[in-house]
Amino acid sequence: MDTFIFLFIILVASILQTSTGFGFSILATPFLLLIFKPTEAIQINIILSLVISCALITKVRKDIDFGILKRFMLGSVAGLPLGIMIFLLVDLTKLKVGISLTILALTIMLMLKFHINQSKSKDMVVGGLSGSLTSSIGMPGPPLLLYFSGTDTPKEKLRGTTLAFYLYIYFMSLIIQIIFAGTTKTIWISSGVALPLVFLGLYVGQLLFKRINQNLFRKFTYLILLFTGVYMLIESWRL
């Protein structure tokens, strides 16, 4: 049963990632934590997310904002080591509660039409937050998604820029995770088993992306964030 649930999670998350540009880690990580140990769940998520980013990067290159991407990367330099320290020192339950409350609070602000003015300094801060979340729990998406949604960024630019950043941040986070937390055969075998579902999800997600308009895209974004925040909070209280 766990194998079926695992493969279903990977398929749905892959479709979401390809069609929206952000959804794999946000959807997959909370559920993978129910099946695997924290280190295994996070590294499986990072490995598969890296595969997705590699597979899609050539298709979205024209939509990348390289100025923002550069500032995200610079900001992440401080966030990456902070994230692995959090992973190694902070209780996972407390970490999940904090993240879920942050996601819920910021999502509600966006639903109430809270607007964020983009700036170079904010790009750096968002990159740092995303870096710390990637090396700690393998989930870089929330800061990027909340920031881009608050600045009314078109979905093409959102998907292209986030995927390009993911290619860098997942690679760096995987190296940091392996060095400081170690790795196991389970992680690499499970990732290999999931690859066919990832590629199927890529195909289906590309078809959906062409049919999602900007308004529907924004509403879907809020729904995913609310679901993730509420789910992580409930599961944290149950532990």
What's a quick, concise take on this entry?
This is Probable membrane transporter protein. The protein is an all-alpha fold and 239 residues long.
Give me the secondary-structure topology.
Elements: H1 2-20, H2 23-35, H3 38-60, H4 66-89, H5 92-111, H6 120-137, H7 141-150, H8 155-181, H9 185-209, H10 214-238
Helix pairs in contact: 1-2, 1-9, 2-3, 2-10, 3-8, 3-9, 4-6, 4-8, 5-7, 5-10, 6-7, 6-8
Tell me about this structure.
With 239 residues, the chain is mainly α. It has one domain (2-238). It contains ten helices and no strands. It has helices at 2-20, 23-35, 38-60, 66-89, 92-111, 120-137, 141-150, 155-181, 185-209, 214-238. The longest helix has 27 residues, at 155-181. The radius of gyration is 16 Å and the shape is globular. The two termini are 21 Å apart. The model has no long low-confidence stretch (mean pLDDT 84).
